[in-house]
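Hi team,

As requested, here is the filled-out complex form for the iron/sulfur cluster run. I kept the field names the same as last time so the parser does not choke. Let me know if anything looks off before we queue the next batch.

— J.
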Amino acid sequence: MIRIEDNLGRRFEKLRVSLINDCNFSCVYCVSEDLTDLNGHSFPEIHKDKHLDLDEFVRQIKAVHRLNPLKSVRLTGGEPLLYRNLIPLIGEIRNLGIEDIRLTTNAYYLKQKAKKLVDAGLKSVNISVDAIEPEVFNRIARFGNTSRVFEGIEAAVDTGMNVKLNAVVMRGKNESQIIPLLEYATQLGVKIRYLELMKMGHLYHSDNNHFFSEKEILETIQKKYQIEPLPRKQAETAHYWKASNGGLFGIIANESTPFCHDCNRLRMDSNGKFYGCLSNSHGEKLTPYLSNDEKLAEKLNGLLRLKQPVKFHGSELSMRNIGG
Ligand code: SAM
Ligand code: SF4
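And here is what came back:
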C-alpha cells in the first residue's frame, strides 16, 4: 500500500464532510447575513453552493478510504440535518466498512431525526449550543425558538448515543453562559467543549476583539468549581478537565493551546473539494484521480503537506463552507 504520511508522522484518519453549505441559523461567528463582521466592517456574502449528490459523496469517500483507510467520518455543514439524503448516506458509509460515523449539528431538527439517525448507524453527535439563556442564544444564532435546540439535545441523549456539546465563547456576548452551560451538560451527563473563537471567513481580517482565551474560560469556571486536568488523547482537539460539580469539560483552544502537531483530519466540502488543513483557503477536487491510486496518493500526500506545523493561522473560508 502507498504510504500517505507527512514528515511529522501525521496521517489522515478522520474525514469531515460538509454536506451542504446552507444553514437555518446565522451564527455571528460563522456567517454574517447583514454583510458585516463582528465589528461592523463589510464583507462578501456566502453564496449557497449546489452540493454533491448522494452517489458522488459515496464515490469520493470510497476512493479515499480504499487508499487511505479512515477510522471515522464526521458529517457536518452548514447544517447537515438540512441535507435530505443524510440517512441513506450514513447507510452507504457503513457499507464501506466505516463504523464510526459522527455528526455535528445545531440540533434544531434533531428531535424528530435522532432515533432514525441512530437506527441508520450514527454513533455520536456534537451539538453546538452557545448559551442557555434564550436572549443570549438568539443574539448569537440570529434565530428564535431555542427550546427546539434543547429538545433536540435531550432527544439525542435519550437514544443512548454519545453526545457532546460545543460552545464558542465570545467576549461581550456569552461568557456569562460558561457556568450555566457546564451545569446543564453535567445534569444531562454529557461533556461540554468550549471553543476559542477562530479567525475564519468574515472574521479573518478582523482584530478578533471578541476572542476569549482558554485561560479566561478556566478562570471563569474556577470562580465556582475546582478543576483537575485530564490527560490528552492523541490527535484530540480538546484538552479536558473534571470539575468539582462532577462535570467533564474540554477546551478547543486553537490559539492558546494549538494541536496541529498530531492532526489527523482531512476535510471535504459540499462541492467535493478536499482540504488538508483548516488554514487552506483553496480546496482541491480529487475527482480526476479517484481511480488512479498512484496519482490519488500523490494528491493526498500533497494535502498532508498543507497542514500547519504548529498553529492554525486563519482562513478566508467560513466554517459553514469548509465544514467545522
Ligand atoms: N451547523 C452545525 C453546527 O453549528 O454545529 C455544523 C457546522 S458548524 C460550521 C460546526 C462548528 O463550527 C460549530 O460547533 C460552530 O460553533 C463552529 N464554528 C463556526 N465558526 C466558528 C469560528 N469562527 N470559530 C470557532 N468555531 C466556529
Ligand atoms: Fe449554521 Fe452551524 Fe454556522 Fe451556526 S455554526 S451558522 S448553525 S453552520
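Two things worth flagging: The two ends are 30 Å apart (CA to CA). Residues 15-322 form a domain with the TIM Barrel fold (CATH 3.20.20.70).

Thanks,
J.
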